[in-house]
Amino acid sequence: MRRSRYNTMMKEKKKKPWAGRFSEPTDALVEAFTASIHFDKRLYRYDIEGSIAHARMLARQKIISRNEEKNIVAGLKAILADIEKGRFIFNARDEDIHMAIEKALVDRIGETGGKLHTGRSRNDQVALDIRLYLRDEIRIIGEMIAGLKSKLVDLAKSEIDTILPGYTHMQRAQPVLLSHYLLAYREMLERDEQRLRECHERVNVMPLGAAALAGTSLPIDRACTARLLGFKKMSENSMDAVSDRDFVAEFIFVSSLIMMHLSRFCEDLVIWSTDEFQFVEISDAYTTGSSIMPQKKNPDVAELIRGKTGRVYGNLVALLTVMKGLPMTYNRDMQEDKEPLFDSVDTVKSCLHVFCEMIKHTKFNRARMLKAASGGFSTATDVAEHLVMKGIPFREAHGVVGRLVAYCIEKGEDMQSLTLEEFRLFHRGFGDDVYTCLQVENALNSRSIPGGTGKDAVLKRIKSIRGKRK
Question: Is the pTM for the entire model greater than 0.85?
């Protein structure tokens, strides 16, 4: 009799918590196909954090006793310790991290562990876990971006006299300060950081209490749970709370923009490191060689960051595709939100980290940059503006200088080598002062308006940024 009862108990323990209305056990193939424990186990800390807060709220509301709360919390903390010490065994039969922890809790403290799920569902539980997880990751990524921004400002200050050609259409356009170029990426990162802060506001909403989709009839205190977990807001609609993944999509979109900005910077570094440009020298520690060509030094780190941008874009499209046709409210399709999210978090963090280190180990070839900035008629616009200052309409001045450039190309000369008489062949308004605006340094520093590339303007911007840090 005892043996029979023991066997019955063991069979009951192996059943799924939701197995009451089912007459057959889940097929092993289905268990493997539907399980998410192999990737959502990384949410364990947040699942336990949310469960502890939930248990404390249940006790305050007298839905469970204080002693039951104490046992549940102690059991959850013990499970947390075991996971972090590598002693916890995750089993695919447990389906997901929520069931794995709940099962372990029941195994440790008995039927009291089954009371933890009172007033909640896995639907609002997973929404909570993801929000808790993303709150932390947004903070970490924000700090990494802040660090990179600071590095770019410091680099801009140290390279304040470095001049390079600015490009449009991949053609040399006008001379700019390398500092101005670096601060352009700092502006992009500033917007990224701002978007992260805004995304955090929408992530920081407490969904627990929505239960499966309609809330619960039990007298829970959602405001109490929100306070315990540090949420500023609670979800206002239980159906929206369990079906909302906008905040995940928004985060991956912000991540896509971060990756785009890193990728564009890396594209320049790849081009600038070629023999044709020789603008930069990336440290050997952040480059690789060829398996067949001994002379090669490849900017693989920059190329990989550029390449990994595509996978974050793909994650965004994958999530939007999952969500686009779902009926209200929760559907199992939404299990597919986590892998794109986790991969985006991991990719952005690794790329930010290695990019920041690579920049620290990159040298700029100042002489080569200046030489390039001095060629290609880079001060032609300044010559046109020189005429404008003498009262000549810009369109007329533009045409004059265009013909002047064509003349130089035909003669195989640059404008600096022309005599004043040759200048006056194209317009009588030219004077000796035209040679001043032909000098790269003079042309560059004349652009001292706010936001311009002139040295004074760039130094003011650096001072302004550093002032905001304090």
Answer: yes
Tokens describing residue 212 = 């499966």
Q: Residue 2's pLDDT is what?
A: 47
Q: Give yes or no: 169 in active site.
A: yes
List pLDDT tens digits, range 399-414. Answer: 999 999 999 999 999 9
Residues 387, 270 share a domain? no
Catalytic-labelled residue, pool 4, 23, 169, 291: 169
Asked if residues 361 and 286 have their Cβ atoms less than 8 Å apart, the reply is yes
pLDDT digits (tens, 9 = 90+) for 57-69: 999 999 999 999 9
Is-catalytic flag, 290? yes
Q: What is the mean pLDDT of the chain?
A: 94
Task: Say whether pLDDT at 55 is over 70.
Answer: yes
pLDDT tens digits, 302-336: 999 999 999 999 999 999 999 999 999 999 999 99
Sequence-separated (6 or more) residues with CB below 8 Å from residue 397: 384, 385, 387, 388, 427
Q: Classify burial at 459, counting beta carbons within 10 Å of its beta carbon; exposed 0-12, middle 13-18, buried 19 or more.
A: middle
Domain boundary among 340, 371, 402: 371
Candidates 283, 290, 350, 417; catalytic one: 290
Q: Are residues 393 and 444 in the same domain?
A: yes
Instruction: Residue 160: name the closest of 383, 384, 458 by CA.
Output: 458
363 and 350 in a common domain: yes
